[in-house]
Amino acid sequence: MIVAEQKSLEEIRRIIAPYEKVLLLGCGTCVTVCGAGGEREVAFLNSALRVAQAKSDDGVHNFSEYTVKRQCDFEFLDVLVDKVNEVDTILSLGCGIGVQVVAERFPDIPILPGVNTSFMGMAKEWGVWDERCAACGDCRLAETAGICPITRCTKGILNGPCAGTKNGKCEANKDMDCAWILIYKRLERLHQLEKMRRYYPPRNFRVIPRPRRIVMKADIEQGEDNG
Amino acid sequence: MANSLFEEKLNSNGFLVTTEIGPPKGADVSEMVHCIDLLKDKVDAINVTDHQSSVMRFPSLGGCLLVKECGGEPIIQVTCRDRNRLALQADLLLAYSRGIKNVLCLTGDSVDVGDHKEAKPVFDLDSVQLLKMARGMESGKDMVGNELKGTPQFCLGASVHPEADFIEPQLIKFEKKVIAGAQFFQTQGIFDLESLKKFMQYASQFNIKILAGIIVLASARMAQYMNDNVPGIIISQAIIDELANVEKGKGLQKGIEIASQFIRTIREENLCHGVHIMAVGKEGIVPDILEAA
Questions:
Q1: Could you check whether the bond before residue A211 is cis, i.e. omega within 30 degrees of 0?
Q2: Interface predicted TM-score (ipTM) of this complex, two decimals
Q3: What 8-state DSSP symbol labels residue A148?
Q4: Which domains does chain B have, with CATH numbers?
């Protein structure tokens, strides 16, 4: 899932400053799971903003809140049409995709981001999320025992550990496991160390040129066959 | 035929001695030139580091040009941290065209350990891919197969960490570097000759030259600091204790003594093909170490 972190109250107050009526818009998928922008966080942010406003005595904002099932799909945004007409801006607590889909759907109103979209990852334990995929477009997990060196090695290198690893940890962060030590141990356990002995050539950064787009080939071909 | 003076020495059976200079942080190279003059006739080649520990400095390529101008034999350290494959190939072409043919291919330290922590880490290639890239250029083609006008020839080196606390994956990578074209290796700092011996039992099956890395320590505090902060350094408690037990102000002298003793033993017992002395920041003591060894 996509993992995000809510921006600081201070930054949110700064970016909404020019607008009077603000719709706080949550999203019911990834950011709900990682506790950054779901219904609960929207309600909490609404209260926090009101309190901050009352304390600072510059009560110019009028907040409303709503959470859609998914911000990253036009079909879930239709319910917002009336609400959008009544506000000056939308502060989206969806990920960067959500923010942009809302912007694309409602071209006449400013959209502001309320979270920093951080990475794609997993909940390691409650409250701790770890990055797991860099969406590189050229998955090599078959060769690395299901552990991604592009994401989990600070240098994203492909041919084994650098010399900076110590106690199984990374030179960049002593709390982080060295991805290549993990890969070695798991390949050894699976009797697949020959995969580590292979040479891996430099990555192709144009596997999918930026900005990336995928067109579903199977359906089109099937459609053509049927037609 | 050898591509460089250093390669000629690699091909001979003599005991090799290299050292390294860290370029200045700034445009004043006078001290560096002084160092080069001091060292150039006492060693077989001088490495110039490439923003060591990811701290921004005068560039390795510029430093190697100075070594050349002073009449020394440079080894350019090239890391993958700051340049993508276009820039790396271009720098190698420039290096070759100016007579810098010895190249130490490194992945490079993480940006996180340096002084520009917010910089974008590049790592378009890793050290194995860099070696292969340089070897590939010798066939007269760039990485994508386009023809080069003028074909460079290099003497390629790499690094290896015989004292890594988990050695097996390091040995796999070492072998990949050999296959990719490394002719010589300068090891990370050696603080335990037993681990060097063990490594050499493995490494001697390959037709390459190994230069044991010798780091000169100036105090127990420095040793502890390096253990905690410098990637890949593992200094034994025995050496830290030895440094801690000397009179105040005599630490560097002790460090020189330890380094000299290591070098003497390595040479006398023929443990490997030479040494690479790392005394960055106090390069001036290298002649004393060699004298004592």
A1: yes
A2: 0.94
A3: -
A4: 5-217+261-284 (3.20.20.220)
